[in-house]
Amino acid sequence: MALISDEDAGEQIPGELPDAQIALPCELEAEEDDALIIGPGGIPKTGLESSQPDPDRVNLKNGKAHQSYQTSIEGYSNIAVKDNGGAALEISPEGEVSGEAMVAGEYTLILEALKAGRPVAIRARLSIIADPRDLWKAIASDQQAPNAKVDEASDYCRSAEAFIVAASKRGRSHAQVGSYRDDDFSIRADTETGWHILIVADGAGSAELSREGSRIACEVVLAALPVLLAEKVDPRLQSVVEGYADDPESWALMVREELLKPVLPEAALEAARAIELEAAETDREPQEFSTTLVIAISKKVSDRWFTASFSVGDGGVAIFDVDKNEVAVICRPDSGEYAGQTRFLACSEFDDANDLMGRIFVDLRENFTVLAAMTDGVTDAKFPTDAALENSQIWSEFWAEDISKEVDLQSNNPAIQEQMLSWLDFWSRGNHDDRTIALMLPEQAVNECD
């Protein structure tokens, strides 16, 4: 034991060092680890610096949700995954990265590898971008509220000559907020008279009760047309069809003026009156029931199909023939005062006789593949311009590569309605309105597709 003299104290204390040799606690810590981390302003950071070097940082290319993923990590060998960060990826020792049905999110993967023969750690970042359709909500509408309407509907009917299938689906923009489907439709294949009737209507999204307006319009027209056709068209139809060959242009004008004008506009006018009556009885304004209306009728006469249409507002009616690669658009899309507007069913729309004639179309042919009546939720997405609606190549692609891929358009398909509703859920960027379509397919055309 060392004896140290302390003259001031006059006493020798065993084991003590002179003051100059006393080590303070912070000095002892510094001796133990001289790697103390000093932050800005000379302020020590808590914790000690890791002896491990910072990992290499790698940003993997972005991927898309629900799709397969492939990329590569270059400059490294013997790669091994220590933590995949929740990303379902396979990474080979050579750096080949792959995955299936990726889930949207941000991922950080911790890897080990060799770089120039030396072991390194890798922090790899990966972004899987969400599919836009996954961001849409599907909030059910209130089915207990007055004038409630189901979010989707479909129907099917058949005669000896043709069958009709129709489907209507609430748009994503409505589903996002839990509002109602404003579209509606009615169809009929009359086995006694041979008439096939297709009606679709698109309630104005800005009108509170437009869903009721479209329903009223379709129901009233479907009830009125069979009576009007029996009284005003059927007695003359056979002789009218036989006179087509004499002068087709004059024939069409005569048919529209004498045969169809007292029928199609009259049925639509009955619908407009019914809407006004409903508005009066419920103390509402007729504009709150605003809706478009598209009507198509077709009947086989003397081995030829007599088809006609009438419409108020946007949407579309067309006849497409696959064999001839021909399309006939038999409607006049109505526009409003400003771009993007349309016209709606109202009694005032029937005041101008010349305007009414411009809305009536007639067609006569031996055969065709499909007669289609659509609201703008379909036409805007599939035929975004008037020129596209008249383009036979676009129709050919639509028929063969689009709808026919998803729907087995055969009269004996028991799942046809469900398939139509599923098809209406197609994705089209910027087009999220209600969608309604009614298709009539002659049986001969159906058999040719078998």
SSE diagram, text form:
Layout lengths: L24 H8 L3 E3 L5 E5 L7 E4 L3 E2 L4 E4 L4 E7 L6 E2 L4 E4 L5 E11 L2 E12 L22 E7 L3 E8 L2 H4 L7 E7 L6 E7 L7 H33 L5 H13 L3 H18 L11 E9 L2 E9 L3 E6 L4 E4 L23 H7 E6 L4 E5 L1 H7 L3 H4 L2 H15 L9 H8 L11 E8 H7 L1
Q: What oligomeric arrangement do these chains adopt?
A: single chain
Main beta sheet strand tally, sense and closure: 6 strands, antiparallel
> What is the domain total for the residues?
2
Structural class given helices, strands, pairing? alpha+beta
Strand segment count: 21
Span from first to last CA? Answer: 111 Å
- Which CATH class of the largest domain applies here? Alpha Beta
Description of the molecule:
- With 450 residues, this protein is an alpha+beta fold.
- It has two domains: 56-134, Immunoglobulins (Immunoglobulin-like), CATH 2.60.40; 137-449, Phosphatase 2c, domain 1.
- Helix content is 28%, strand content 29%.
- The strands form five sheets. A six-stranded antiparallel β-sheet has the order 11-12-21-20-17-18. Strands 3, 4, 6, 9 and 10 form a five-stranded mixed β-sheet that branches.
- Strand 13 (183-189) and strand 14 form a beta hairpin.
- It is elongated and about 95 Å long.
- It starts with 24 loop residues before the first helix and ends with a helix.
- Mean pLDDT is 88; it is low at 1-37, 45-50 and 446-450.
- InterPro entries: PPM-type-like_dom_sf, PPM-type_phosphatase-like_dom.
- Pfam families: PP2C_2.
